[in-house]
Amino acid sequence: MNQSLPHEKHTCDFCVVGGGLAGMCAAISAARHGLSVVILQDRPLFGGNASGEIRMWVCGAHGENNRETGIMEEIALENLHRNPYRTFPIWDSILYEFIRKEKNITYLLNCSCLDCTTENSSITSVTGWQMSTQCYHTVSAKYFADCSGDSILAPLSGALYTSGREARAQYNESIAPEVADKKTMGNTCLIQARETTEKRTFIAPDWAYKFTKEEFVHRFSGNMNNPSENFWYLELGGTQDTITDAESLRDELLALAYGMWDYVKNSGEVSADNWELDFVGFLPGKRESRRYIGDYVMNQNDVAGSGRFEDLVAFGGWSMDDHNPEGIRTREPATIFHPAPSPFGIPYRSLYSKNIQNLFFAGRNISVTHSAMSATRVMATCATIGQAVGTAAYLAHRDGLSPRGVYENDLSELKQTLMEDGCYLPGNAMEASSLMRSSEIISTGKHEELLTNGYDRKIGGNENCWTGKACDTITVLFPEVTHAESIRIALDSDLDRKTIGAGRHVPEKATLANRHLDVTPVHTPETLVKHLKIELTEDGKAFIPFAEITDNHQQIIRLPIGKECRGVRITPLATHGAEEIRIFSVNIR
Fold this sequence. Notes:
CATH class of the largest domain: Alpha Beta
Distance between the termini: 52 Å
CATH superfamily of the largest domain: FAD/NAD(P)-binding domain
Structural class: alpha+beta
Number of strands: 25
CATH topology of the largest domain: FAD/NAD(P)-binding domain
CATH architecture of the largest domain: 3-Layer(bba) Sandwich
Number of helices: 12
Largest sheet: 7 strands, mixed
Number of domains: 3
């Protein structure tokens, strides 16, 4: 390392390498629990594949009421509140803000990890190069999380990892190939288009690929009016190395991207006179490269069996979406959607290194087989994994444990903390506080008994919520005057996004791909409580105002109380449009 260039040194509790959604959620969760955090992101934007540089859709669990909550839902709801037309400049600013506003996070953008030091099977520091400042940054920490996607800390630290596809017999996976190979899913340079009110022409560069109609079998329908079209199948690299061949692959992918638009505009096969090219991603979106080896390697059978792990700390629900390694070069289907249950659990033992004692990981690089990764790799799933890792780092630091030690000693608390922070863990219920269990709940609405059943969403046919109208009340009376520390209220954020006004335009997505003239603005879910007040009582009879929230747009409301009182009364006054008010849980500590 050239010593003539600046070299800054940082010390923190937890260092996160990689600023995609997984790394962001890991950093935010740890920081909110009090850890000092440094996050290195090698790009100028946070969000990874979801950022405005790449623009892949944030996908997650299929099925009703299976949306990922916790920090991922906070981000999504903030986006609905502030980004009605779902544009990338606003989306990018929201992701940036979620990191920037956490006082315990130091963020290093444009900083690429290039080295690490280890001692006694633990990482002691990582070093990155920040190209914008021409400065080296070395970060020393007690715990590290590799959320880089490509698992950069694996070859640098000696952590065990794998890549490619396992042989069918190794894990008894029916969808795996008979013989193991190094083939993966490929990369894509996405394109996006905009519909206009007049004719637009396009002259392709001479290096653009020349497509024929036959090459789009199983891929492009030829219909630009389809809001779900995002050209994801412009894919290459699965038969090469998506890391070492990244630069040459990018050149080929750009030729595909511009060739795709040449076909749309100039082949005569597509009705697209009024469409113009609006974006080309010069940074390919990557689906697969290195995967770490943890204490457990999750496989196809675990996914198919719903992942009913004791140490379930996150969940998926995407199908086993196994892209053909040949990508656009094959006339076979671009992918096979092997069925998977939604939701399925993901175990904590797949989120930390088997041989490096202080290394977590989150994202598409967790300890899974290729077959299982085809379902766990999507970004909303990766975000929930990141939150689990950040929370585990907090418990490890608090109790002086290794990541494995959290599994051995703090697993129950890890799960309860995640649920308290808004995460859904299938098959697990959040425990009400001892104060709530000993209190009397009285309401002028219906089903107040469900407020402490531990579920913050509808599950199957069970609504799991209190219902009422504006000005109905929920009163929690304690057995005696008690010091109440805080209150948590879980609201209905319309996990199926039926009330956000999206019309036909992919309501489940945070951003749009192609922009149609008839695109409608979205808004905060109508089901969310917008306005409520909280009152306290000292004698169980007279209530005095304590707090009033007038413009809520989040699913979870948390407020410190810090007072001696005999009880609390909650009065929801208005939603964002729905007549019925739905509250899933109330917890007072």
